From TrEMBL:
The chain crosses the membrane at residues 12-30, 50-72, 84-105, 125-145. It comes from the Eukaryota. This is PGmPM3. Keywords: Membrane, Transmembrane, Transmembrane helix. InterPro entries: AWPM-19. The keyword Metal-binding does not apply. The lineage of its organism: Eukaryota, Viridiplantae, Streptophyta, Embryophyta, Tracheophyta.
């Protein structure tokens, strides 16, 4: 079976995004821990008024992104419509929350002030993830346009419940005695 174009692109994006989401989860957890402990004067942290909101959404986006990649890995293995539903919907939700974290990262950068290197790395990863996750979502849903790009949204045997087509042995119009 030939690999489709979208599957060939989505596979490396899945692994790239998984690694980036793991990094975001690590940095955001560290920064949130320092923020809760009141250690905002730590040399590698800093922050401003948007920091707390950004950290909460970054952790939420990272957790949803990691779960999305687990479901996406299952879909890339099976590459069927039924696995696409779980992978596609979780990827869209993960992208939406990542887009919120992206907006808060931009707001934090816009407010300014001194921010440590860990916070700046977290902002950068979140900004890059907003675009790579969107590209991943588009690759998952590329099959809407042509089965060349995805599992095909119109598989003829899908949803038939295992019933053979009319005309095969033992199947057809039932006959009744009049």
């Amino acid at each position: 079976m030939a690999r489709t174009v979208a599957r060939s692109v989505a596979t490396p994006l899945l692994f790239l995004n998984l690694i980036m989401y793991l990094i975001v989860l690590g940095f955001a957890s560290w920064c949130l821990n320092k923020y809760i402990n009141g250690q905002t004067n730590h040399p590698s942290f800093g922050g401003n008024g948007a920091t707390m909101f950004f950290l909460v959404f970054a952790i939420l986006a990272a957790v949803l992104g990691i779960i999305s990649k687990v479901l996406g890995g299952n879909h890339l293995r099976a590459w069927r419509n039924d696995s696409l539903a779980a992978a596609g919907s979780s990827a869209i939700v993960a992208w939406a929350v990542t887009a919120l974290a992206f907006g808060l990262a931009c707001k934090e950068i816009n407010i300014g002030g001194w921010r440590g290197w860990r916070l700046r790395v977290l902002e950068g990863f979140t900004i890059v993830l907003a675009f790579t996750q969107l590209l991943y979502v588009l690759m998952l849903h590329a099959g809407m346009f042509s089965s060349r790009y995805g599992p095909g949204y119109r598989e003829p045997e899908y949803g038939s419940g295992g019933v053979p087509p009319v005309g095969e042995k033992g199947v057809g119009v039932p006959t009744t005695a009049v």
